[in-house]
Write a structure and sequence with these properties.
By secondary structure, the chain is an alpha/beta fold. It has 3 domains: about 90 residues, no CATH class; about 100 residues, Response regulator (Rossmann fold), CATH 3.40.50.2300; about 260 residues, 2-Layer Sandwich (Nucleotidyltransferase, domain 5). It contains 14 helices and 23 strands. The strands form 6 sheets. The protein has a 5-stranded antiparallel beta sheet with strand order 1-2-3-4-5. A 5-stranded mixed beta sheet has the order 12-11-10-14-18, with helices on both faces. A 5-stranded mixed beta sheet has the order 21-20-19-22-23, with helices on both faces. β19 and β20 form a beta hairpin. The two termini are about 30 Å apart. The relative contact order is 0.09.
């Protein structure tokens, strides 16, 4: 595979619209705005084509907003990725203010306070912006905010909101501060609380790491999924069950080229440390016999643009290593069960925030159930038939609406698979007692499976995909 496109020269020929070239040499470019820096790095991998790394880091937070590797072989593909990177770089400008959300019962009293806070913040030279909503809207509008402030009259809901919002600080405004509309005092209090929480969180890690040992060979596993305008591809190389390399791609859209870029660059970079014996790819959609049945959307396109595209055959022809595909919820079910072998019958239910429908994986009698067409666990086929309280106003960001649908899906699981345990990945529903109460509308408490809340979706997918590859290799 010879390099056919000179990406360096093409980048130099481009007009600098909205950014400045901060650094330019043969193997590195830096494109900067006031809010973020994009880095384009070239790595020599001779005799293979070089690898290009595109990375965007937000100036204020240091967070990675875009990150991937690829071979600059195809001109159109290289230009497309560069364009996506520049688009992401420029879009960060509109999100740089520290946004803080205020919540009360209906959002009216906090709206007045938010206006005053904005006035005082501007006078003090703080780049903070306050907005107000009702507490029921916090779950939809609170994501990506620096903090959520709860009015004292609904302080009893602060714990629930914090459970759902995860790492986003949820703070109850002191009663005296709110009653006096003391904007300056509130700003100082918020700044102190955020600083204290940042120091407390530094160096802490909270993952649900699972281990899978005893796998033979060197295996590349990939977990791909997209939700709420963000695509993530988490990949990992295992050598006899031990992690030897890991990486992540962050983009706005998940495409077939993103998957092949990860495989290309990882196969190339791993040659010096040992060949890859197999590749496992976990994807959204119904997966069976190499087909990935998933409609093309704004967030996902896993086709090559032709009818009847078979991803498994395409990847097998492209690479001289065994390729195994699996639905990502199925892989997560395998991974969760790998970490909990005491259970024989397991259902893994993934309900991403903001998505009306989730997906499931089922392990029955220790074996994954995929079905004749790969549709086992594709609850999108049935959810629209459910009876819900507000069918015209279903809000995938509202815990109450999501709970109603989840309860009915779990009842269906009990009626069809009757699992010992259901592992639920749903940020909006962290309280399993509440889920059990909803399920009790359909299934008596004493007959319900054990309910377990899951945080680290990717970890279970990767471990499950490793187990799937190991099984396939053993039975080839």
């Amino acid at each position: 595979m010879a390099q056919t496109f000179d990406l360096r020269s093409w980048i130099r020929s481009q007009p600098h619209k909205g950014y400045e070239v901060k650094l330019e040499d043969y193997d590195r470019f830096e494109l900067a705005t006031d809010y973020a820096t994009a880095t384009i790095s070239f790595y020599n991998m001779a005799p293979d084509p070089e690898i290009v790394e595109l990375n965007i880091e937000e100036t204020a937070t240091g967070d990675a907003k875009f990150f991937l590797h690829f071979h600059p072989v195809d001109r159109e593909h290289s230009i497309q990725l560069f364009g996506e990177m520049v688009q992401t770089l420029l879009s960060i400008q509109s999100h740089q203010q520290t946004e803080i959300l205020l919540c009360c019962t209906a959002g009216m009293t906090t709206s007045f306070f938010a206006q005053k806070l904005n006035q005082v913040a501007e006078a003090m030279g703080l780049d903070w912006v306050f907005s107000a909503v009702s507490v029921t809207e916090a779950y939809e509008h609170g994501h990506n905010k620096a903090a959520i402030l709860i009015a004292p009259q609904i302080g009893y809901q602060a714990e629930r909101v914090q459970q759902v919002m995860g790492n986003i600080p949820v703070l109850q405004i002191p009663t005296a501060t709110f009653a006096a509309y003391d904007a300056a005092g509130c700003l100082e209090w918020v700044r102190h609380e955020l600083d204290s929480r940042a120091k407390e969180a530094a160096g802490q890690a909270n993952t649900e790491a699972s281990q899978c040992t005893g796998a033979d060979g060197r295996i590349l596993v990939i977990a791909a999924h997209a939700a709420s305008g963000k695509a993530t591809i988490h990949h990992r190389v295992y050598d006899h069950g031990s992690i030897v390399a890991e990486g992540r791609v962050i983009k706005c859209r998940l495409t077939l080229a993103d998957i092949t870029d990860v495989i290309d660059t990882r196969l190339c970079s791993c040659r010096s440390g040992g060949c890859i014996d197999a590749v496992g790819v976990a994807l959204p959609g119904a997966v069976r016999n190499g087909y990935v049945h998933l409609k093309k959307t704004r967030e996902v396109d896993l086709t090559d643009g032709t009818d009847g595209f078979v991803m498994g055959s395409y990847l097998s022809e492209r690479y001289d290593v065994p390729i195994f595909l699996c639905n990502n919820a199925n892989a997560a079910a395998l991974g969760w069960r790998e970490a909990h072998p005491e259970y024989s019958d397991v259902t893994f239910y993934s309900q991403a925030t903001g998505w009306a429908m989730g997906g499931q994986g089922h392990v029955v009698g220790g074996r994954l159930v995929e079905g004749a067409s790969g549709n086992a666990g594709e609850i999108r086929l049935i959810v629209n038939r459910f009876s819900v309280s507000n069918p015209l106003h279903y809000n995938a960001f509202d815990p109450a609406d999501v709970l109603e649908v989840v309860g009915q899906v779990l009842a269906m699981d009990c009626a069809t698979f009757d699992p010992e345990v259901i592992a639920l990945r749903c940020d909006l529903l962290p309280n399993m007692e509440e889920v059990a109460d909803e399920l009790s509308k359909y299934v008596d408490r004493e007959q319900q499976p054990k309910l377990v809340h899951v945080c680290d979706y990717d970890e279970h997918i990767l471990v499950g995909m490793l187990a799937r590859c190991r099984h396939e290799l053993d039975h080839k």
